[in-house]
Specification:
Elements lengths: L1 H9 L5 H28 L13
Helix pairs in contact: 1-2
Length: 56
Amino acid sequence: TYHRNLNLNRRKLIPDAKLDESRAQRDQARFNLRLAEIELQKSQVVSPLTGVVKST
């Protein structure tokens, strides 16, 4: 959406405010993705031993 709006803005088809809104949404999405990646890394369990864990 941001890139599409950037192209539209360059052709003066949408106002700068709409482009700014798209940019903010893109940046927020990137931040949320990075935060989710960090949280996922925190939730992974790593063992110093090799093997398989069986559940019953």
